[in-house]
Amino acid sequence: MSELFGSDAFAPQEIAARVEKVGVAKTRLPLAATAMLSVLGGAFIGLGALFSTVVTADGSLSPAVSRVLSGVVFALGLLLVVVAGAELFTGNNLLVMAWADRRIRTRTLLRHWFVVFAGNVVGACGLAVLVCWSGHTTVDDGVIGARYLAIAAHKVRLPFGAAVASGVLCNVLVCLGVWMAFAGRSVVDKAVAVVFPVAAFVACGFEHSVANVYFFAMAWLLTPTGYLPLSLASALGNLVPVVLGNLIGGGLFVALVYHFVYRRSAPPAA
Fold first, then answer.
1. For residue 251, what are the CA distances in angstroms to 61, 198, 255?
2. Model confidence pTM above 0.85
3. Going from the N-terminus, what domains does the chain have, and what CATH number goes with each?
4. What is the pLDDT of residues 11-50, one digit of tens each?
């Protein structure tokens, strides 16, 4: 198949088979391994968000340049997940392909997502604590810290419907980035595949549930009580619709669509 595309990259039909095979393997990992890899995944996405915030805190850049550049550096997070190895809730929405082929039970899929998201939360929050302890947010007279507060304040004010739609668009791009990374045979291939979709969703301001956990954790650690309209309820008011949107975007609009195209009539996997 690859020869038809004039490159050594895996063809879309081969990608679909690889995504499904990897999805099954993920659900068979020991619980402790899944949990640890999920903590790493949350921390990795937090590192991308950290890098991105440094860029957007620079007021000398034009809004367009700031958004695009922050998106490019945010790709560090997903690249670490894909290349270094970690479990990420949003990317793992592609497991819907294996579920649709009845290779993963519904209960197994939901349990895997729960463990991965919980681990991502622990990793993102743990990184936030380390970042605050490091004094990083006080750099440039606290400009970076103020930027975290502004980002969190914007997120908690999003209407429910807007948060769902933004989550859908975000994870369509994230899962397409992961999908294209499966086409690559080298680290460079994977990096190129990941950067542009991630840069697009960040530049457009779409909502990523795991990144939002990191931003909320930073805001809680930086904010005196009552200063910012950020409580557990307000954070959940953002995270619930964003998680729903991420699931729809990655599970329905990417995984199920590609399953219909490439795997619906494919022979059973070995």
1. 36, 17, 5
2. yes
3. 2-263 (1.20.1080.10)
4. 999 999 999 999 999 999 999 999 999 999 999 999 999 9
Assigned token pair, 179:
């999908």
The phi and psi torsions of 74 (rounded to 5 degrees) equal -60, -30
Q: Which of 52, 58, 56, 11 is nearest to 199 (CA)?
A: 52
Q: Report DSSP letters for 239-260, one per residue.
A: HHHHHHHHHIIIIIIIIIHHII
Residue with tokens 């989550």: 167
The values of phi and psi at residue 140, to 5°, are 55, 45
DSSP per residue over 163-222, as a string? Answer: HHHHHHHHHHHHHHHHHHHTT-SSHHHHHHHHHHHHHHHHHTT---HHHHHHHHHHHHHH
